[in-house]
Amino acid sequence: MTATESTTIEGRRARLRSDVALAARVLPTHYPLETFIAVNPLAGLENMPFDQAIRRAGDVYGTPGILRIKDFRKMHGAGRVTDADLDAALSRRYPNLAGAEPLRFGGRDLSPLELMRADLLHGVGCLEPVRRYRTRSEELAPQLADTVDAQTAKWCTAFFGAGAWPMPGRESGFYSAWRALAPRDPSLKRAVRARLRRTSERAEDAALTALEALGVGDDRRIAYLQAHLSRLPGWAAHIHWGSGKSVGIDLTDYAAMRLAYESALLAVDHSDRPADRPVATPPSARERADHIATVLGLVGVSDDELSVAARVLAAMPVTAREPLWQSAFESHYRGGLLRALDRAARDLHREHIHTQVVTCIDTRSEGLRRHLESLGGYQTLGFAGFFAAAIRFTDLMGGVASDLCPVLIAPSHEISELASADGTHQAERRMSGARRLAGAEAAFHTAKEAVAAPFTLAEAAGWAAAPLAAAKTLTPALSGAIRRHLHTLAVPEAATVLSVDAMPLAERVLFANVALATMGLVDGFGRLVVLCAHGSSSENNPYQAALDCGACGGQAGGPNARTAVAILNETEVRRELRGMAIDIPDQTWFVAAQHDTTRDRIQILDRHLIPATHQEDVARLDVDLAHAGAALAAERCATLPGARRVRTRARAARHVSTRSVDWAQVYPEWGLADNAAFIVGPRDMSAGLDLQRRTFLHSYDAEVDADGSALETIMTAPLVVAQWINCQYYFSAVAPDVFGAGTKTVHNVVGSAGVISGHNGDLRLGLPWQSIADGSRLRHEPMRLLAVIQAPLSRIDTIIDRNPILQRLFGNEWVSLAARPSAEAPWQQWTRTGWRPWFESYSLPTVLDEERVS
């Protein structure tokens, strides 16, 4: 090979890899189960307006990006969308309607707005999304396209799974292992296997050869690669996440395999009948007008009247109906929320505050905060659940460290858990017990996965396993209590501390200053300040991480709270903070805690570090946290499937605790279902309101943030993550077949990669159906996030102007923004052309609006 030829080949390979990367822009990111992080599955399309992005997604995936019109009409019947909401949405989309003259229609005078509203309510015809970017096999031989998918899923499952028979040659990388094994696959025809035997050693060369055989030119290559990647978006998304992480496979390997299969299969057999692609034709505007006349019971409509009505309806194509419904649906909730915030109590009697509790901004914390404040003497604040402690944490047992921080940032410090000075013996017993237990579990799992050992294992341990399984099924509460007790005996608790000395004092002080200033807690400290992290506990749940703290990388945030508390209690740190105008009184003590959101129990951490002077305060805190947790459990029981609505708080607390240890429970909790708004401001904004656990609540005091740095951090980090969460729930609800995970009842776990439905198929994206719906009824109302901020509007403008991500989210209507400079000012809506009064364009709330947020 000459140097010129070598250069040409390397150039073609590089171009292919670039094209694969460009094609992958439509893919979401799919994190492993142990760190399952919420993502917007259409994040690659956020540079487009929302309505345009969901149309593009429909072309790529063939799936809707919005609820169907029949669903919205049901909501209208239930009062969740009103005629006033529809009129407001139409007026925003078609501002000329406001001054339009009525038209005569079958003996009645109808305004153009009324006619359009009638079409939204009763109009016929709708267009379902159609996958427009298709592979050759989809077009010529659909059954072969299914074969390509089945082979792809089979080998990806073999590579990522950790079963009894690991994929031979896996250590050499996916493509090499697949290339060696695929030609021996007896499920393929001999001629196909022969062609696979000739596949190039390099993935790029194999892909280029297949593309040439398929007749795909360079100008169409990106779109064609995109068609292949979007056939099984789950596997492609997970491989995309692993790019650059040395997992042994990348999207070029994946695409090369799919293209090689397609090329070989089509060369041998494409006798199937090409797939029919029925083209839906929407009804004409005149047909729509005629139908409305019939629905309204109008007679004697003339041709001229029909023609005029048709011209009005032509301005609102059939494809515009659902986005208009979505806008009306969202404004119904948003108008009610903003008016409720106007009514919120503004005097929290801070002079009587004895304890401040800082929780995660997570929507589930809203209920805890509300019930705790009702007891009096408590002030609550909201802050991202990692408490600004971006750490890589190693617990007492050692092993692999965990990154406990948002995926947007990298851990800045390594923190280790150590035995306390007087707890060495306890720590040794705990570590010894944990090692024995881990060894026994490892031996058990190894025996289960070996080829013959399960038969021996069943004979040896079946007599014990069967009763245990029965107990877990029939009496989960008792079984769970016994198992917890036995675990405590085997692995006893130990007094430990977290080492923060490795962080230089200057960095500890900076952390403390930023954390306190961002949450607005710079004065008025109580005797106790509780940093309350959260996690979740459930049995037999691959999606456990989805219920833990997203700010901690899909893990419980207890170590973050403990790290922050250790720093904030240091004398040297407090001394330095006084020079920064943050004077923490000597009598103030910071305490770490963790809220189990499934059981609604709050555990105080590191009790051995709390001084005797504050033991009475902690005793009162224990009682009040138990009271608030039980009240929250009773509130949640009203929405949990299978929970009786009428319960005492004690019974409710026992019920949610039982759900957490029931291995058959597919609804351990609702997580962040129904999230709809992100509120940034002082607690005065929402105090006294029942926000129904639908809002992220981030504390912020504009008066102590003169340069806007704290607000910029909130808007570019927690708000962005909240939008990811919101979009994950939204798309899991409106497009569950593509962006959801299907029902839990048929899930099979594939290593740590994710789950598949049944024995083969695509890796499931998004959330299980049981996280968003109860049977056929959606529990999550899919609406885009509303950001609500109390801060100077000019400050918000400055932050948006210098952050392209915010320009995309707000400018392309992925997130709406309502703001006011003070509690006395009216709400304003951010638009690309400037601020405008919110209620000029949004309908007034009905009584139902107010009931839903107050």
Automatic annotation (TrEMBL):
Its main location: membrane. Keywords: Cell membrane, Membrane, Metal-binding, Transport, Zinc. One of its GO terms (molecular function) is zinc ion binding. The keyword Zinc applies. It is a peripheral membrane protein. GO terms for cellular component: plasma membrane. Forms a complex with DabB. Part of an energy-coupled inorganic carbon pump. PANTHER family: INORGANIC CARBON TRANSPORTER SUBUNIT DABA-RELATED, UPF0753 PROTEIN AQ_863. HAMAP family: DabA (MF_01871). Belongs to the inorganic carbon transporter (TC 9.A.2) DabA family. This is Probable inorganic carbon transporter subunit DabA. It comes from Mycolicibacterium aromaticivorans JS19b1 = JCM 16368. The lineage of its organism: Bacteria, Bacillati, Actinomycetota, Actinomycetes, Mycobacteriales. The gene is dabA.
